[in-house]
Amino acid sequence: MSDDALCFLSAAELGRRIARREVSPVEVARAHLARIALLDAKLNAFLLVTTNRALAEAAVAEREIAAGQVRGPLHGVPMALKDLFDTAGVRTTAGSKILAENVPARDAAAVERLRAAGLVLLGKTNLYEFAFGTTNDNPHYGPARNPWDLERSPGGSSGGSGAALAMGLCAVSLGTDTGGSIRIPAGACGVVGLKPTLGRVSRRGVTPLAWSFDTVGPMTRTVEDVALMLNAIAGPDAEDEWCAARPAEDFTRDLEAGVRGLTLGLPREWFFEGVEPGIEATVRDAIGVLEREGARRVEMPLPGMADAHTAHHAILAAEAAAFHGPWLRERPDDYGSDVRRGLELGQLIPAVDYVNARRVQAIVRATFRAALAEADVLVTPCLPQPPLRVGEPMSREPAVAWNRLLTPVNMAGFPAISLPCGFGGAGMPVGLQIIGRPFEEALLLRVARAYERVTAWGMRRPPV
Amino acid sequence: MVETPEQALIALLRQRGLTLDAGRAVALRPLAESLLGRLARIGETLPRDAAPPAAGLLEDRAR
Q: Which of A40, A161, A366, B24 has the fewest Cβ atoms within 10 Å of its own Cβ atom?
């Protein structure tokens, strides 16, 4: 098998071949590192490549596996981490100038768990500064670019992870989603990204953006890989008060159960309004595929989403302003202009408006809960428009914001996945968003897998 | 002397220990007016019985 083919295998398949000793972790790491060296100058997906460390970790994995000590299905599989996750002894910038020299002493909780599962760290991926944006136009480290069109953004804030996965530069990645930052790059780059239920995965060791919404989740090329990654990282953490006590479970258990008898809810309002026609047609085709697989479709009201987006913006900006307050006072010029403006805006939000935004959050949660009492999952487009051009300013206005179909889900705290479902009018990947009930990620993955199984969109490779 | 909206923004942020120059104030003003305007409208239309989410996470009400 060629190195290129090796780099586009799913993590599950790589793990199986590694466990059977058909391919070695060192060989896999070398193939990915070579591909990064060859292609990342075009993408700028990586802020740091940990070559020596990756090879050393891969060698350890190889020895363990040779000795019959297989840690699990992802042992020896190469990963890239959004540079928002603390990595012990490895620079962690959060995409900022302020943390440019930051070298954490300890891994983030999710990173600890991935290391325990035997994954090999290839490097840290590019992101929007402090994850406070929906593209990957980073003013300090340069923009990441979309492998499907280098003039376009891979989305953000976990844009480097999306670009690296689509280009076969890593097998799996870890992102964070506060207002769509996993689902946006997944949708824009044609990969799979899961925002788990708020509290499903520990956030210890992740630079905060907004405590009310910050969620850690997997980004991969297949649904099975998401399930395997979630198996590795989900579960209680006594060191994170926001982390749910709910025990870990096997998220692969229902992957092949299909959708026969399940009900798909299609919101009547908001989610299909102002959507680029090519994207809407692609998503409706995808819903048709799920219907042919045996799911039933119901249209349902889902009011109040414009207010949900506005309230989300207020909570996010205020909480980010609180976290960044000391740096903003002491080192304002070390922020990029957009993030600085967003933080200044957060400083202007009155306490009463913050509380009212939280009241909206309760209403949004109730709205989603009612909808998901009538349907097993909700199905919508992920992004309303094709990826922005690199450098094109993003808007946070509800009518046009690129993440406006995603922020309501962050307000609810419910899980949602984006998976590739075709290509839109601009020839760019289109993401299908599936939203589920709290802690029902296994059902989300089941629906996503049912779609993936009968389509091949995730198999397409970018032209770069 | 009448204070312009930009001057008001500069003064507000100065109270919070932040320095905002005139150029940045011009860029910030429409964003602030839009968001704070929408939040004010939301505040006027919220049902009286709407409370913030209960303390704790989603777990207790997951089933």
A: A366
What SS3 state is found at A404? coil
Q: Give yes or no for a cis peptide into A181 (omega within 30° of 0).
A: no
User: Per-residue pLDDT tens for A102-161?
Assistant: 999 999 999 999 999 999 999 999 999 999 999 999 999 999 999 999 999 999 999 999
Residues of chain B neighbouring A245 (CB-CB closer than 8 A): 59
Res. B38: pLDDT tops 90: yes
> Per residue in A347-398, pLDDT tens?
999 999 999 999 999 999 999 999 999 999 999 999 999 999 999 988 888 8
- On chain B, the residues whose CB falls within 8 A of the CB of A340 are 24
- Give how far Cα A440 sits from Cα of A244, A254, A372, A443, Å: 14, 11, 11, 5
**pLDDT reported for residue A396:** 83
Per-residue confidence (pLDDT) for residue B63, from 0 to 100? 39
- Asked if A345 lies within 8 A of B32 by C-beta distance, the reply is yes
The whole-number pLDDT of residue B62 equals 41
Tell me: pLDDT of A458 over 90: no
Prior bond to A157 cis, omega within 30? yes
Question: Are residues A359 and B57, on separate chains, in Cβ contact within 8 Å?
Answer: no
Q: What radius of gyration, in Å, describes the C-alpha atoms of chain B?
A: 18
Is B38 part of the contact surface with chain A (CB cutoff 8 Å)?
yes
| Tokens matching residue A69 | 């000590």
**Cβ contact B28–A347 (<8 Å):** no
Taking the C-alpha atoms of residue A333 and residue A152, their distance in angstroms, rounded to an integer, is 27
CB A356 within 8 A of CB B39: yes
Element (H, E) at B37: helix B22-45
CA separation for the pair A435, A449 (Å, rounded):
14
Instruction: For residue A414, list chain B residues with Cβ-Cβ distance below 8 A.
Output: 58
| Mean pLDDT within A318-347 | 98
Q: What pLDDT sits at residue B57?
A: 59
Residue B60 predicted with pLDDT over 80 = no
Q: Which amino acid, one-letter code, is at A430?
A: V
Q: Which residues of A touch B30 (CB under 8 A)?
A: none
**How far does B1 lie from chain A, in Å, by closest CA?**
23
- Output DSSP code: residue B63: -
User: With an 8 Å Cβ cutoff, are B35 and A310 in contact?
Assistant: yes
Integer Cα distance of A269 and B45 in angstroms: 19
Report, as an integer, the average pLDDT of A411-440.
Answer: 96
Closest-CA residue in chain A for B42? A307
Residue with tokens 């104030």: B25
Provide the angle, in degrees to the nearest 10, between the axes of the packed helices A25-43 and A159-166: 120
Which of A245, A317, A355 is closest, CB to CB, to B52? A355
ipTM: 0.93
Place of tokens 């300890």: A106
B58–A439: do the CB atoms touch at under 8 Å? yes
The structure tokens listed for A235 are 């579960």
